[in-house]
Amino acid sequence: MLTEKYGGPSEVVEKFDTSYKPSDDNDRMYHVGMDRCKYYSTYETGKGSIQLTIEKDDFVRLTYFDKINSEIIKRESER
Length: 79
Known about the structure:
The chain is an alpha+beta fold.
């Protein structure tokens, strides 16, 4: 649904903490469940970005990063 709305992701990360590379989705999800994999996609929008993360225990997280307020906070911290 995110790809339909925002286009392809600007970043896709599938990083395993082991040298073994999973061969299928079940194997990938096993490593996610064992907390041995970082698995997320980031989508850019005009108002910021959205990150979709698959985490341990079949937990899916959507994180919204607000561009306007982030820029305000950054300017304030540089003073």
